[in-house]
Amino acid sequence: MNDFNLIAMLGPWEIIGLLAIALLLFGSKKLPELARGLGTGLREFKKATSDVSNDLQRAIEEDPKSPGRPAPPTPRTYPESPKAKPTGDESRES
Asked: 11, 30, 63, 66: which has the highest count of C-beta atoms within 10 A?
């Protein structure tokens, strides 16, 4: 069941009853602080989701010609090492 449907099923007396219970549980001083914190949290959440969707939209529109994957790295070539000089033991054998 959708949250909106649950709220839509509540009548005005049920909503007043829930608010009265919340007032009794949290008190008149704490309730505005909780509502303020909830509002701040919702604002931050909406801002974060809009930032992410804007970043995704910008990335999609930025360069449609670029491939989805980066190009593979080019293999490195190393110069051939000079032949090792014979040690004293090898020169004695010949």
From this structure: 30
